Amino acid sequence: MNKIIRKVRLSDEVYKIVVEAPLIAAERRPGQFVIVQRDTDFGERIPLTIADADPRAGTITMVFQTVGKSTHNLALLEEGDSIANLLGPLGRPTKIEKVGTVVCVGGGIGAAPLYPIAQGMKKAGNRLVVIIGARNRGLVIMEEEMRAIADELIVVTDDGSYGRKALVTEPLKELCDGDPRPDMVVAIGPPIMMKFCVETTRPFGIHTVVSLNTIMIDGTGMCGGCRVTVGGKTKFVCVDGPEFDGHQVDFSNMLARMGAYKEHENEAHDRCHIDMQVKKLEKERGEKA
Fold this sequence. Notes:
Blueprint: E1 2-11, E2 14-20, H1 22-27, E3 33-37, E4 45-54, E5 59-65, H2 69-75, E6 82-83, E7 85-90, E8 101-107, H3 111-123, E9 127-134, H4 143-149, E10 152-157, E11 164-165, H5 169-177, E12 184-188, H6 191-201, E13 207-211, E14 227-230, E15 233-236, H7 237-240, E16 243-245, H8 251-258, H9 262-288
Parallel strand pairs: 8-9, 8-12, 9-10, 10-11, 12-13
Antiparallel strand pairs: 1-2, 1-6, 2-5, 3-4, 3-7, 4-5, 13-16, 14-15
């Protein structure tokens, strides 16, 4: 059992939890993730990236969005409650090295897994430029954390409600057009965002790393659910990734596979969101009674 030490609601559907996991905290490296199982009664196993870790305190930080039943149920847990199982750290860690100027691009909740990578790149001696993008101001996360480590921080929103009105690819292209150009780009966010970041850097030949979050079940390469095509070969995100050379990823195939159950996922989200609100109201009424 892993006790929740702290819980923060970052936006309407995004939560940050700090969980006791001393062995994982000691071994975790930037770019790695865990498999979370909220309950022991055959609950779903879901992959969540480790957004931060404190080896001294023996804790890891995870940021997640309520998408389906499992993440909605996870969001119902409070400080002092426990998560049944945490498996990790999993996946290959980010290759951290000094290359010059690194641009880290985070779309939506992708800013959370991007943070430890940005930290590592800065500590390695790189000049660090961070671009954070979201649909609106209420969905911008990790801004202060990124501002504390970045040499330059650019915030954009789709609707212009905060920062600059633009998609992340707009300032990214401006940086690629600059002199000197970035030596490396790391992009994490929705698949479609990563795809267009890759297409933005491709004409400039700038090495671009993406972190993929495909459908995943066991996290050990057994089920094959997370398979993607990279450089014409089949790779498994959980054991070969989650990071890959973005210019080699077949995003069209990946998007098609991930969209196969989109209609069912949307229905589940709406149903679970309503159920969650009802449970919260019932709890509040019970506490007042």
